[in-house]
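Structure Section — protein described below
Tokens — whole-number codes for backbone shape
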Amino acid sequence: MNTVLTEQKLPDSSLRVAALLSEIGHDQPIVVLPASGKTAAEAAAGLGCSVAEIAKSIVFRRLSDNAAVMVIASGSNRVDVDKVATMVGALGKADAQFVREKIGYAIGGVCPIGHVEKSVMLIDQDLLQYPQVWVAAGHPHAVFALTPQQLIAMTNAPVADIALLS
């Protein structure tokens, strides 16, 4: 069973997300999962939705300027790094320290808003087929719902074909 917690009981990183959501008038609460939502499969199981409806945040490091590149992908898709690199430049791996320093969240709870530094962002076009998707809210157990259109508006990120064809 999911738990909607009052702001006083949210982890600090999720409190930051809650404040941002309140500032922009987002009306969906942060949901705290009883088990980890670190992976798309875990989050989907906890929410009772399909893995594809989880909008997972994957961070890369752009080699030319060390900028964070975040791809918000459908949980059922693997990201085609070559497609992303064609759009934003050559990419390298982003380790946990890089993600924490550039984005401001720990891996497993990376929220698409409230980044420490401005990051380059892309949204998986496959997310547009769902009326609602779920994103991390700053902590591996915390998520919130929004429409794909709200995600685009909140991030100002372009929609792109980033899925690896299997």
In short: The first strand starts at residue 3 and ends at 4. Residues 1-8 have pLDDT under 50 and may be disordered. The beta strands are 3-4, 30-32, 55-62, 68-74, 91-93, 120-124, 133-139, 142-146, 159-160.
